Each structure stands twice: as structure tokens, then as C-alpha cells.
Amino acid sequence: MRRSLAPVLALSLLLPAALGAVSPPTPTGPALWEAWPTARVSPADPWGLKHSGLRVALADLQARHPGLITLVEEGTSAEGRQIPLLRLGSGPTGVLLWSQMHGDEPTATSALLDLMHWLGTRPQDPAVQRVLSRLTLWVIPMLNPDGAERTQRWNAQGLDINRDALRLSSPEGRFLKAVRDRVQPTVGYNLHNQNPHLRAGATGTQVALSLLSVPGDEAFSVTPGIRQTRRLAVAVDRLVQPLAQGRVARYDTDYTARAFGDSMTRWGTPTLLIETGGWAGPAEAERLVRLNFVALAGSLSALADGSLAAVDDAAYDRIPFNQRDATAALVVRHVRLASGRGLAPFAADLSFLLPGPFAGERPRLRQPVLTEVGDLAHVLGLADLDGTGLLAVPWPAPEGTDWPALKTLLASRKLDATDEATLLAAVQTKGEAAVAGPGFTGAVLLYRTVGDRVLLAGAVLRGRVVGLELR
Ligand SMILES: [Zn+2]
């Protein structure tokens, strides 16, 4: 028996995968991460892709991969923009993926373009073959083109489509519901962006992706369909952890009957919510698209090849929850703050936020802003300055003021090196324009105390530290 083993092994390596002798493994996260540059057709700035650009990108994909992508039908937005519904593959398991139901949440839209190109460029890849032969993908890459045009959450009616699943007052919501009812998909992917300033657990890092096996009832009943989306969430977590360690969280929510994910699950299409957060650093937007691509291509592959069934869904409960308001663009810690009203300096931390393209339900930030003063030990600073020994004082800084100009101005008033009482008196004369409370958009000057003198060392100017080294 032993003697025959080697020839059998040799033979099995020669047999084509179609005969079932070799079952290539599910693609790993790192393998998909490395595949992305050749799969990529998405733009550098996902927020820059609007309805017209999407139509060009889809036409280009259809031309490059004849027969891969069928334009099934188009819905119509409140303002008359077409909403393409695409179909790829011909398998028995239907998967409905919809993105950008909130107009300022485009990361997954770009990832879906890359996913479609990946499927088109690798016809010999067994993983791609399995996705296209065992699944039918129904893709709505941009459900809210009117909101995308304005880079806003709501549609042109001012409706949050994701709170319109019961009333169906929006044409976009009616379209999504009609597609679901006609296609009856086995699984849904509800693709969003979230506030980038969330933390994975109380002590974790900035959340790049958060996941939710969307409940279908108040009791969060674990049905076979829910178990499936719990497994999908675990699969996504395992795919992206080697690339973005500690940056995955569970989306923390109540059951929301009027939301689409919850309704999809209730209607019989158990749905996985994927929310893209932030990942501070160079080319952040592109890295998040890449991570989404890995999550989508990898989890769909696991669904298609059956390996998902072996995933332990209990691991879902061990993914840490999103912690809200727990990161800031910059935290300056342990300063003595003289906040401008002539009050005695007190010990404080300061946090700052910078404007970004995602606004969600909050008013859009127009400029960098001081967000909180006080004990911010629980807040993770994406940039962090230990201000121990520094005196912080607010100073009005009109837009366009840079650090050299600010230093020159202060030197001309002999406030670059002075005594503390003189400095605080000068700040107080600025009145309300120099009160360092939440909402303050001016500069925060940072002085070192040397004997009875204070020396200008640096500042926070438009949410960034100047003149001092960050740790
Ligand atoms: Zn959203």
C-alpha cells in the first residue's frame, strides 16, 4: 500500500480542480490584499466618485469583461438619477450587496468596483470560478446618487433611506425593497461608513471596520440565517486581522424596525452590516477600500466554497464593541490651561477634530476645532502630545495664519518671552475670541515655564501641533 502512495499523490496534483481531486483553499486576507493593486479600478478618492463617474466606471467594466456583468434594471432616484442593479454569476445562492444608501459613505462603492474587476480578470482562479458558479451576486453600488452628489447622508427629499424601510417614502427605498422581494436573496450585505473616531473596545485602537449580524427582531433571536451572518462577520474579522490588527469591532446597536438591514433580516434576507471607519495614516481612503475589497472577496469566497460552514459563530461574541467618541485627531495632555476669562490656570487635556468627508448625522465640520477640555484619559489621540510642564493659552488665529506669522506677531507684542501674569492679561483682553472651550477654532499657544518667565514653545494651529515634537 505504501508503495502506491507517491504515484497517487503525483496523479492528484495533475488532475484539474474541476474533477474535485484538488480543492484550492479559500483565499487568505494577505493574498487578497496583494491581489488588490491588479484588481483595482477605483479612484484615489472614493468621495470624488459621483453618479456620472460611476456610470463611466461600470460601462468600462462591462466593456472589459463581456458577459460578466449584466445590467438587470435601473431604479430612479428622487431627482431622476438612475440606480443600476447589476448581476454577476449564476449560482443558486443569491447575495444582494448594496452600498452608499447614505451619500457620504462611498468606501464600499469603490470596493465593489474592484471586486467586479477582480472577478473579471481572474477567470482561471478557482476562488473566482466558485463565486461565479455557486453564487449570484446582485449589486447596487450606489443606492443614493442624489446624496452622493451633495456628499450628504440624506437623499434629495432629506430622508434617511436607512430609516425608510417601513414607510417607503423614498424612491430609493422602494427600489431596494422591490429588488429584495423579487430576487429573494439568501444573504444581504449592507455597506456603510461610520464615524472614523470609534475605538475597538475601551482600550483598543481606531476602528477600520465594524461588523454587525443585523438582528431581525427585538430579542436578537439567533436563527439559522443569523448564524450565517455571524459566521460571515467572523470570516471578515479573520480575513482582515492580519492586515489591520485590532482594528475590527462589532457595531453596537438596538434593533431598529425602520432600518433596512433589520428589515431585510426580518423579511428573510439575513444581512451583514459592514461599516468602514478610519485608519489614520498615509493614503487612508485607499487602504480602507483595499480592506473592504479583502472583506468582500474573502467572505464571498468562503460562502461560495462552503468553508464558511466550519466557522465557529460563537467567535462573533468575542469581537469588541465600537466605543463612541473615544478617539480624536489630536489629544494634548496634562497642560495647565488658562482658558481666557482671567480664571486661574487648571490641569486639563484638550482634544481636537479635523474636518473629513464623512459627516453622518452631525453638522459637517468646516474647520479644525477644539472638541473637549478635561480628563481625556479614555480618548485615543491619533496624534498625541504630552504637554506636561506646558502652559496653554488660547489665541485668535484668523484663517491663513501660519506658525511663522503667529510667532512674529507674538514677538512684536513681546509675548514670545514674558511673565505669566502679563501673558494672561494679554489673553484676557481678547475676550470671547480667546476662550478655549469646545468649539474653539483659534490657536492654542504652548509656553514653557522657566523660572518666573514663560517662553513660547509651540502651538496647536488648526488641529495640528507646530513648533513641538509629537511623541
Ligand atoms: Zn450609513
Task: Note down, in words, how this protein is organized.
With 471 residues, the chain is of the alpha/beta class. The chain folds into 2 domains: 24-323, Zn peptidases (Aminopeptidase, 3-Layer(aba) Sandwich); 327-466, Urease, subunit C, domain 1, CATH 2.30.40. The chain is built from 12 helices and 19 strands. The chain has helices at 2-14, 29-39, 51-64, 107-121, 126-134, 145-150, 171-183, 224-240, 260-267, 284-305, 403-412, 420-428, and strands spanning 70-76, 82-88, 93-99, 135-140, 187-193, 199-200, 209-213, 248-250, 271-276, 322-323, 327-337, 346-353, 369-374, 380-386, 390-395, 417-418, 443-450, 453-461, 464-466. The strands form 3 sheets. Strands 11, 12, 13, 14, 15, 16, 17, 18 and 19 form a 9-stranded mixed beta sheet that branches. The chain has an 8-stranded mixed beta sheet with strand order 1-2-4-3-5-9-7-8, sandwiched between helices. The chain is elongated, with a radius of gyration of 26 Å. Zinc ion (ZN) binds next to loops. Zinc ion binds at residues 102, 105, 192.
